[in-house]
Amino acid sequence: MCTTSTPKPTSPNRGVPGKKCGTILLTAEELSNCRDIATMQLCANKLDKKDFFGKSDPFLVFYRSNEDGTFTICHKTEVVKNTLNPVWQPFSIPVRALCNGDYDRTVKIDVYDWDRDGSHDFIGEFTTSYRELSKAQNQFTVYEVLNPRKKCKKKKYVNSGTVTLLSFSVDSEFTFVDYIKGGTQLNFTVAIDFTASNGNPLQPTSLHYMSPYQLSAYAMALKAVGEIIQDYDSDKLFPAYGFGAKLPPEGRISHQFPLNNNDEDPNCVGIEGVLESYFQSLRTVQLYGPTYFAPVINQVARAAAKISDGSQYYVLLIITDGVISDMTQTKEAIVSASSLPMSIIIVGVGPAMFEAMEELDGDDVRVSSRGRYAERDIVQFVPFRDYVDRSGNQVLSMARLAKDVLAEIPEQLLSYMRTRDIQPRPPANSSPTPAPEQP
C-alpha cells in the first residue's frame, strides 16, 4: 500500500481584474499501486417509499473517504425502477478507487430514489470498509439504512430499510494496456447518419455541409475519434457505413450501405479513407430516412460474436443528429450485443435535445428490452456541441471530444474480459494476430 498526502494549494478566482471573487481549493492524494479489483452484488429490503404514484426507483452511490475527512464518489449503481426491494446487478470496482488500498478506510454508501429531473430523493445511508466487506465473502451482511433527519424527528424511527451484501470477491486487476500488449486488437467501424433531418448538404445550414473553409460537425467527430482509435488497429482498415439514404440508381433506401460503394469489401484505408468515402457518398446519395440504428449495430455484433477469445474487440462509432425511428429494435440490439466483445460510441451533432440517446447510454438506468437488461454498459453517448471551442479552434474541439468519447472504452473492454474470465496474453513477439472478421 502506498498513500501520501499532498499540500492543498489555494488560488484566488479573479473574474474582474483586481477584484477577488472567491477561492478555489485543490486537494490531491496519490493513488496506491494496488491492482486488486472487487466484485460485489447488493440488494435492499423495505426501503422508504418516495414516489407519490409508485414506490421508489432506488440506486446506490459509493463514496471513498479522503485523508482530509471529505468524501469522493467512486461508484453509482444502476437504477431499479418501481420497487422497495431492489436487487442491483453485480459490479466491479478497483480497490484503489474504493479505498485507495487502505482496507480500514471508511466507505460511505447513500441510497437514493431516482427522479428524471435529477433531483434525486435521499432515502438513507450506511458506512462500511473494504475489510468489513471482504469478511462477508461467505455470508450475507445486512446494513441498516439510516436517514439522520428522520431519526431526529421521529422517536420511534428504526431505519429506512436495509441493504444486504449478497456476494463479494476479489481478483487481480489487469489493465487495458495489458490486453493491448498481449495482442488484443480494436476493430473500428463507422456508421454515419444520412437522413433528411440533417438538412440539404448543399446548404450552409446542413449538418453535412461541405464548407471549403472548415470541417462539418460530422467530419470533425469522425476525425477526432478515428485518429486516436486507429493507433490500436494494426491494419488501419475500417468498415464504414451510412444509413437512412436513397441509393442510386434505383433509389433503394438503405440502413447500412458501404461508404466506398463496395458491398464485398466495405473497408476504407485509414481515417482519411473514411472521410474521402463519406464526402463522395454525400455527392451521390439522397438523404432520406427513417433513422434506424439496429441494422448496423446487428451487423457489427455478428462479426463480434464470431471471436470471443479476447483477441478482438469491436468499437462502433455512430454519428447522428439524434432523431431515431427504431428505439425498440435498437434497445434489443444493444441488450444482445452487451454480451459480446463490443462497444458503441454515439456522437450527437446538431441542436437536438438527445433524450433518446441519453436513454441508450444507460448510465442512469440500464438499457433493457423485453424484460432483459444489458449485461454490461456498452454505450457511450456525447453531444458534440458540448465540446465546441468558443473561439472556433477546431483542433481543440476535436481533442476535447476524443478525450471524453474514448474515456469509457478501456473499462468496457475490461468488463468484457472479466465477465468471460479472459486474461491478457503475454506480450506478443513475432506471432501474427489473426485477421478479424469484418462486419
TrEMBL record:
Homology family: Belongs to the copine family.
Keyword Thylakoid tagged: no
Sequence ranges assigned to domain VWFA in this UniProt record: 187-388
Region annotation Disordered: where it falls in the sequence: 418-439
Gene: CPNE9
Organism: Hipposideros armiger (Great Himalayan leaf-nosed bat)
Domain C2: residue ranges: 20-143
Name this polypeptide is given: Copine-9 isoform X8
Pfam families the UniProt entry points to: C2 (PF00168), Copine (PF07002)
Residue ranges with Pro residues bias: 424-439
